[in-house]
Design brief:
Layout: H1 3-27, H2 35-58, E1 59-60, E2 63-64, H3 67-81, H4 86-102
Antiparallel strand pairs: 1-2
Helix pairs in contact: 3-4
């Protein structure tokens, strides 16, 4: 594939992405969503963010991540569910992963 084709593809995707984002902002006041649709959009956003975080945390390329990383993510999620401060969540997750790696898991 030529450099010009790649550059054109990048530009087209960038313009399209910007147009979609701008359209959402500009049309929000003209086309209000109902209460149920608003809740669905909010939940969809949360689900999408969680899915991206889990895929990033639990995989390395096409391979599963080490068990220690998965345990660290689970420990951090547990601390977050218990409403621990962010610093505590990070320390718990990192400590769990580091401890398991030190044990050879």
């Amino acid at each position: 594939m030529s450099t010009a084709a790649v550059t054109l593809g990048i530009v087209v995707l960038a313009v399209g992405s910007f147009a979609l984002r701008a359209g959402g902002v500009l049309l929000r006041d003209r086309m209000p969503l109902g209460d149920e649709a608003e809740r669905l959009v909010e939940r969809g956003t949360v689900v999408l963010l969680i899915a991206v975080a889990l895929v990033s945390a639990l995989t390395e390329g096409a391979e599963p991540a080490p068990v220690s990383r998965a345990a660290g993510v689970a420990a951090g999620a547990g601390a977050a569910l218990l409403k621990a401060p962010l610093v505590v969540v990070v320390v718990v997750a990192a400590g769990t992963a580091a401890g398991l790696r030190a044990l050879g898991v």
